[in-house]
Amino acid sequence: MELIAALCDGLALDPRPYQRLAERTGLTEAEVIARIQAMRDDGVIRRFGVVVRHHDLGYRCNAMVVWDIPDDVVSGIGQRLGALDEVTLCYRRPRRLPDWPYNLFTMIHGRERAEGEAIIARLAEREGLNAYPHEILFSLKRFKQCGARYGG
Amino acid sequence: MVDDVDRQIINRLQGHMLVAERPFAVEAATMGLEEDELLNRLRRLLDANVLTRFGPLFDIGRIGGHVTLAAMAVPADRFDTVAGIVNAFPEVAHNYARDHALSMWFVVEAETAERVAEVLRAIAAATGLTVHDLPKTREFRVGLRLEA
């Protein structure tokens, strides 16, 4: 079995989880450790650790804030927003006109909806973004969250 | 159900896991716990679904996979039926209802771009709704980390 496929099942909760992976992949424990370390250093593994189901930690409000930013300035603004502590994800995506005019997506997590709204209002004011059309799409219900394996 | 020690564990081990022979023993020691207690608490948090998984988040583009975000305008009276159709695809990783005309937002992951496109087409065919494909074209941050 390949190491990446074995890792997708998660790490065994065992005192020697890398030894368990070694047994499944035919590698030695030292090889498993070296390969995971290399994938991490290299960015193939972006994060490695526990994956939290955020609703259960009291983060009821997951707000997707979407912005319509002119194409010639969207990169600069994306970089600025992506560097802020309160922004957990920041992606550029294509517009789908006429239904969808927004090209920059930011995710904000708050424990309550009001907290999320306040964070976003402060951020837009401070960063001078109120001139750009934007909308907040709050999550109403989560139907499926099987623990994303990939950074999408 | 989640006590202060659990919170400390979650905060410490999000996005950070030691790669060494006895990682849990080392991490436990930094938190003043025994290895056994740390493992037992992690098992309990996984069983209780506070944690979804314990492991890596791959850069899917670098391991040969493809991912996209899709959105649909689903009439309120058909929402649950459509959610059932969408969620039945194993390639659908998560799915949220949001307060917008585009009311259903889900992530599709597969090994190939072709398979992702096929799933989107199958969902459109099964529901009769337009599926908007919104793949990321540039990433400025992927740092989801929540204080427990």
Report the major sheet of chain A.
Answer: 4 strands, antiparallel
CATH architecture field of the largest domain in chain B? 2-Layer Sandwich
Strand arrangement, major sheet of chain B: 3-4-2-5
CATH class annotation of the largest domain in chain A: Alpha Beta
Roughly how many Å apart are the termini of chain A?
Answer: 25 Å
| Low-pLDDT residue spans of chain B | none
Separate helix tally of chain B: 5
CATH architectural category of the largest domain in chain A: 2-Layer Sandwich
- Quaternary structure type: heterodimer
Q: Given this structure, which CATH class of the largest domain in chain B is correct? A: Alpha Beta
CATH topology of the largest domain in chain B: Alpha-Beta Plaits
Mean pLDDT of chain B: 89
* Overall pLDDT metric of chain A: 85
Structural account:
- The complex is a heterodimer of chains A (152) and B (148).
- Chain A has 152 residues and is α+β, with helices and mostly antiparallel strands.
- Chain A has 2 domains: 3-42; 54-138, Alpha-Beta Plaits (2-Layer Sandwich), CATH 3.30.70.
- Chain A has helices at residues 3-8, 17-25, 29-42, 74-82, 113-126, and strands at 45-52, 61-67, 89-92, 104-110, 134-145.
- A 4-stranded antiparallel β-sheet of chain A has the order 3-4-2-5.
- The relative contact order of chain A is 0.14.
- By secondary structure, chain B is of the alpha+beta class.
- Chain B has 2 domains: 4-47, no CATH class; 60-133, Alpha-Beta Plaits.
- Chain B has helices at residues 4-13, 23-30, 35-47, 79-87, 113-127, and strands at 51-58, 66-72, 92-98, 104-110, 132-133, 138-142.
- Chain B is elongated, with a radius of gyration of 19 Å.
- The two termini of chain B are 12 Å apart.
- Chains A and B meet through helix 1, helix 2, helix 3, strand 1 and helix 4 of A and helix 1, helix 2, helix 3, strand 1 and strand 2 of B.
